[in-house]
Amino acid sequence: MSQEVRNLEPKQLWNKFADLNAVPRPSKKEERVIAFMMDFGKKLGLETIKDEVGNVIIKKPASAGMENRKTIVMQSHLDMVHQKNNDTNFDFDTQGIEMYVDGDWVRAKGTTLGADNGLGVATIMAILESTDIKHPAIEALFTIDEETGMTGAMGLKGGLLNGEILLNLDTEEDDEIDIGCAGGVDVTATRQYNEEEVPADSVGYTITVKGLNGGHSGMDIDKGLGNANKIMNRLLFDGFENFGLQIVEINGGSLRNAIPRESVAKVIIAGIYDEAFVFDMQEIIKDIKAEFKTTEPKLTIEIVKSDLPSKVMDLGVQEGLLRAVYAAHNGVYRMSADMENLVETSNNIARIIVKDGEISIQNLTRSSVESSKFDLANALRSAFELFGCEVTFAGSYPGWTPNVKSEILDVLTSIYEKQNGSKPHVVACHAGLECGILGTNYPDMDMISFGPTIKGAHSPDERASIASAQKYWKFVMEILENIPMKN
């Protein structure tokens, strides 16, 4: 199937993307893709550096006639989000992504595609390899671990780069030019609990929430999508309130930056409530599906009998857990007062694990305003501490403050309008781009972010538009030819 992708235009881009997608590259396990990029740069005879955290920098001199232009940094991240459908048999640690063409879209078979940010990486690779593309001096920066901590950008030291302009190729709408983004912080609540013997005459059930769209917990947080952890908590709360339901274990969500698509809970109820419990659950399921009929038409909630366990969660802790998750904010918290239709602050209740006496609730809180980010983080902390959790903040990274007077912004908007006959949308996004972090050590660098259209990032529905890739490639080529002169 990769050959079908390799035949697409522009071939330089899609061939490099296919090469990259053959290399397993999960976040925090980038050893193979780092080696791949180091080998790529060295084979081209270009200066190739791996810094102390694993970022790869490849430097290419300006093409003939472009020596008097400002040096640019072209930047994308090497890692990708790993998500797959439950019925897909795939090992991200050992297998390359299996791609296919579906009309105007390139997709993967039951997994994330890696277009985020593989198409950006492939773009830079194609330019580094080319012998006929006009360009100024380039410092190609390939960062690691963008998706689960941005530790690559955070670990990049000042002085390694000399570029005056940074082109970040990590946005997902081809008619948008990004000049700002949200920062984020991981909020994790944990506690232990005692387990009790299962009461006599109990009945075991497994409740499964699945079929949700999922998606990017920043870019898609305002779309009214269902959160499997929140939906599951509704079901468990009602079962506890009305029938004394007791929790055996919960496994909901996966990655912090992905809206959770699935959750599975094992529970017990008293046998005398068996029939009434099932009837009541079906009524609640009907209500939930009606609420989400527009945004989540494939939502499925199953309740099936299962074997009785030997232990269940302590009822006192269970009540605190259900009430805390109900109280914890999920979704948009505040819209920006300065930029129309921009989410300022949000939270994603990404992962809930309850098993063997341990509770873990993992959140990703985002905001373009640092004080608002910690306001929401403290609200979450309060909800979880009230039922005895230890709450930690980790991986905090800053947002990227928009610069509407950017010189490179003027270049890009002019080229876009000339090529497309319309103005681009100049926006800030609610995703966590690396520009804000990179700017801490390179404060004078003029930064911009753009990319081809990618839908469903961070989910197995991720897909990249072929027509958009062609539009984007043309855009990149003209940008390279029009980088401003050195001062």
TrEMBL record:
InterPro entries: Peptidase_M20, Peptidase_M20_dimer, Peptidase_M20C
GO cellular component, one term: cytosol
A single GO molecular function term of this UniProt record: metallodipeptidase activity
Swiss-Prot/TrEMBL keywords: Cobalt, Hydrolase, Metal-binding, Metalloprotease, Protease, Zinc
Ranges for domain Peptidase M20 dimerisation: 208-295
Cofactor(s) needed: Co(2+); Zn(2+)
Domain of life per record: Bacteria
Catalytic activity field: Hydrolysis of dipeptides, preferentially hydrophobic dipeptides including prolyl amino acids
E.C. number(s) listed in UniProt: 3.4.13.18
NCBIfam families reported for this sequence: aa-his-dipept
Cross-referenced PANTHER family: CYTOSOL NON-SPECIFIC DIPEPTIDASE (PTHR43501:SF1)
Family: Belongs to the peptidase M20C family.
Protein name listed in UniProt: Cytosol non-specific dipeptidase
